[in-house]
Amino acid sequence: MTTSITSEESAEDAAPTKKSGFVVMVGRSNVGKSTLINALVGSKVAITTPKPQTTRLPVTGILTTKEGQAVFVDTPGLMQKGGDRLTKKLTESIMQSLQDIDVVLYVVDPTRSIAEEEKAVMQLIAPIKKPKFLIINKADLPENEIPFIGYYRDLSPDYRETFEVSALKGHNLEALKERIFQELPVGPAYYPEGQLTNMPSEIWVAELIREKLFLRLREEVPYSVTVKVESIERRTDNLIYIKAYVITTDERYKRMIIGKGGQGIKEIGLSSRHELEMVMQSKVYIDLTVEVDSHWPDRME
Q1: Are residues 34 and 79 in the same domain?
Q2: Cβ atoms of 262 and 299 closer than 8 Å
Q3: Do 30 and 169 sit in the same domain of this protein?
Q4: Which residues of the chain fall short of a pLDDT of 50?
Q5: Residues 136 and 46 in one domain
Q6: What CA–CA distance (Å, rounded) separates 119 from 108?
């Protein structure tokens, strides 16, 4: 006895099975999560600076391959010592990002010892039953520069798998991508092919301006500064106009940001414009205004 199969059934059975799901990155501040998400996605979707706690909101990066689609969420770094309003908001953001996820990437930095912040992150993700990967970043550095790598390797039994990578140089990232897709559930893509982030363009531009602000000001201005983009308009075929506000909590910080003769805010606008022009393939004019609002951290969503 033979069983016949229609051509429609054959095509359906032969169709490749694609994966899709959400991959959340967690870790204490300044371990390289933003650099890692940019490297995995292949484009800049998260700001990167030497300062800790520069990621304020969960940033989503989308990687679409022949295997399917992985949606990466870069969470703010956890800082135990901060007891201010902003730090509390960031911790709430991390907790929210850990809901309804498929894979957790716990990113660590072997140049730093396992301290209270690290233990707090481990406690945060310990109850999660989904696959968890330990990602040891900066593993390409000379041994004398990563003295704590052995301590992190000792954590491996608690995780599904450990990857020693370099987010900056791309070392071992292809193997990590392949392993992530193996763990994702079967399902349709969440976003169209070619889309790299779900962040509205205004938020993405605001984050880029904030990155340039942090890089220029270094330690001069505290983290109580944010950027709000009011509008992005295409004025001509080759000119995009951006109206944005730099908001800080104190008048003295406003003076620092503006700089002598307005030189500070001018340099921030110039460096932001150069990168935006490369991304947007158009001339860009940025209208930047610095304002004081001591209560803006209370209004963070």
Answers
A1: yes
A2: no
A3: yes
A4: 1-15, 49-57, 79, 82-83, 86
A5: yes
A6: 11
